[in-house]
Design a protein that fits this description.
single chain, alpha/beta, Trna Endonuclease, Chain: A, domain 1, 2 domains, 5-stranded mixed β-sheet, 3-stranded antiparallel β-sheet, 57% helix, rod-shaped
Amino acid sequence: MQKIEFGDINRFFVSIGLFLIGFALIIPYFYLKEDFGLYLKEEDVAKFDEQIVEIIRAKRNQVACLQKIIPFVSLTLIIGGIVFCFIGIKRWLKRQVKLDEKLDNKVAKSKLDLKDSTPEERVVNAKKETAETEIAEQLESGAEKPQNLKTEGYLSYMAIEDKFFNYFKSVKNSNFDIFQQPKIGNRFFVDILLRAKTNKYSDRIIEIKYFKNQLPLSSIEDSITKLATYISYYKENTNKRVIPILLIVYSSEKLDKAKVFLYKKKIIEYSQGIPELDRIKVEIIQESKMNEFDIKQLLKR
């Protein structure tokens, strides 16, 4: 047996609705068109046999009853027809919105190619990121010439990135597809991309920074500028809304809450001058307290 298509059901509902509305209009038309013998004079009726007279009078009584019922029948049919049409159209619109969103996502994906990074690319990116942050930290501390860069520091950075990625996955939010270190448009690597499945939510591009001892503003500002570039390129090629997120993790115990608050304020002030970052979310988290961080707040509309 052939399976009934979803669209056929919607058409069936609308067809029933239109039939009921049409029927509701036809009934009064044919009723008013028929005279039912009502125009016979009493003297003419009296000429017929008694049985025929009874039939005529019974018919007149029935017509009188129908006269009262027909308006309600027609009104009921019209209301029923409107309800069926509404159900069919509503179901169709709901389905059509999903199909349109699916098509939009298809077009966006074809326009902006997303590629998973290879393990080798991830290591190269992590080493580059770590070298830049370590140099920035040494300059922030007053060192004239950066030296003794720890080559194994990139492993800590990758571990932080993996933690955040796993946090997002553990939430099991059905509104987003999650990508780690994707390459967008064969141009930029982003740390984490959350692609919204429907237009109700905005996509998220997440930049992660990890510092050991200092929070060098110069390095953070460079990351903000890069993030703005990613957002601009992404929006231009997908026509989708994007929320930029900057997650900064530090391991030092020397930074108290007051300093962290001051840094966050400066970062937000710096971001306000960049149009692409008007909806930026900034979180500064101590490494030892990462497990306490509520990742769900980053997924809200």
